[in-house]
Specification:
four-stranded mixed sheet, globular, 11 helices, about 25% strand, eight-stranded mixed sheet, alpha/beta
């Protein structure tokens, strides 16, 4: 074989070969480094059911499982898959009321053949009260009671397919990423709705995930308040204010970015409504837009960087014996059409005897998965204790994580009664039980 040097002498050719070898070695080194660097991929899927499915809106027993009459704004599920070496984790946020026990099992069954385990996935519901009913997704719901929601198998299969699919799609888009998180205090946009209580969580936490090349990829936003601007008479699908927040951030950041909202310990937290309008829809839009602008301003100041801390840990939590509150018939029972003779059998069929908590860490961010609606007092205590345990600066509660088991209150508040206590089905020790399990999960983070 003869080489044509194209005008180069042998020495120049030798130098070129050496330079070429150097470039090749550099490329090999970069590839080797990237194999242990953090990678990320995002995807989104429209969850809005077609009108012909006649899907009921959840959140208010007064709606009597009547189907939505249209769409105000569409509801979405979004996935961020993060991977480092052979380890990967998926965060999924969804514009839904919540996920019932056993629903995540259906999602994981669809992914089992691809190597995913349940502890590698966290589902986070926004808790909008203008999306499909939680109990429409519960395969154990055989009671056909309109006030609590009626199981709809077609919807169950459709949503489980969609969530598995969005994880699968995000996993196929992995690229090297950098990330950073910041928490700021916003004091005037939420309040405690329980009489006599003032505790409210003022933390707004924003996480920025960019590609290594500097392209914004994902924005995670954590804020604590019920999405309940719409009431039982509002019968259109909507993400409520979290939907508007996400669209606002995406519009301000620019094309290609996916914004993912997850709620906190919102069990007793209400949004502070904007002044100047009585329209429920306009209130939701103005509140979401305002919080979206605030989140974007925080995002702008975050300097993403290579992330070393990437871990998660799941702990099983044995739940206390099912015990409904004496106030149940006056509040929750009245709303959901139940009586004393029905409640025991219904809760035994729908409520689990154990649950779990997954804690997830990405650099300075720790998400503590809480499987229900936790009161803010407990949530703020958990966050402080987890900061001390982990050293992370930005600790958040991932409310309604993976499944909804109950409202979760301090013992004194459970004994006090009221609506939240009446929809808390494991007695006064549930708060302490869940807190202990979440802290075990946080301690397991590496």
């Amino acid at each position: 074989m003869k080489f044509r040097f194209c005008g180069q002498g042998p020495r120049r050719f030798a130098r070129s070969v050496c330079v070429g070898c150097g470039i090749l070695l550099h490329v090999v080194a970069v590839v080797a480094a990237d194999s242990s660097a953090l990678q990320g991929g995002v995807a989104k899927v429209d969850l809005t059911p077609p009108p012909e499915m006649k899907v009921a809106l959840g959140g208010y027993g007064e709606r009597m499982s009547k189907p939505a009459v249209g769409v105000h704004d569409r509801v979405w599920a979004k996935a961020l898959v993060l991977a480092k070496g052979d380890r990967k984790f998926a965060l999924v946020t969804a514009d839904v009321l919540g996920f019932p026990p056993r629903f995540k099992d259906a999602v994981m069954a669809r992914l089992a053949g691809e190597g995913w385990r349940a502890d590698q996935v966290m589902l986070l519901a926004s808790h909008t009260h203008t999306s499909f009913d939680l109990m429409a997704l519960h395969p154990g719901n055989k009671f056909n009671i309109p006030q609590i929601g009626i199981f709809q198998k077609e919807l169950f299969e459709r949503v489980a397919d969609a969530l598995a699919g969005v994880i699968r799609e995000a996993n196929q888009k992995l690229t090297p990423v950098v990330a950073g998180s910041t928490t700021v205090s916003v004091t005037d946009r939420n309040r405690n709705r329980r009489a006599g209580l003032t505790a409210h969580d003022t933390d707004l936490t924003v996480t920025r995930v960019d590609t290594r090349a500097g392209q914004p990829l994902a924005v995670l936003v954590n804020w604590t308040a019920h999405p309940t601007f719409m009431d039982a008479q509002d019968m259109l699908f909507s993400g409520d204010w979290p939907g508007h927040l996400q669209r606002t951030v995406e519009a301000l950041v620019g094309p290609g970015v996916v914004t993912m909202f997850y709620n906190g310990a919102e069990g007793d937290q209400s949004p502070t409504p904007p002044v100047g309008t009585d329209s429920h829809w306009e209130r939701a839009e103005r509140y979401g837009r305002d919080m979206g602008i605030r989140a974007w301003r925080v995002w702008e100041k975050i300097k993403p960087h290579p992330v070393e801390e990437f871990s998660w840990h799941t702990e099983t939590i044995a739940l206390p014996k099912i015990a409904w509150h004496p106030d149940f018939m006056k509040t929750g029972g009245a709303e959901y059409g139940l009586n004393e003779s029905m409640i025991g059998g219904l809760l035994g069929a729908l409520q689990p005897t154990q649950t779990h908590s997954t804690a997830f860490r990405l650099g300075d961010l720790v998400i503590l998965g809480v499987p229900g609606e936790m009161a803010a007092e407990l949530g703020m205590t958990l966050k402080q204790q987890a900061r001390e345990l982990t050293g992370a600066k930005c600790v958040t509660i991932g409310g309604l994580a993976d499944e909804w088991v109950s409202y979760i209150l301090p013992a004194a508040e459970w004994r006090k009664g009221g609506y939240e206590a009446s929809v808390s089905f494991y007695g006064e020790t549930l708060g302490d039980t869940i807190m202990a399990g979440v802290l075990r999960a946080a301690k397991g983070l590496k």
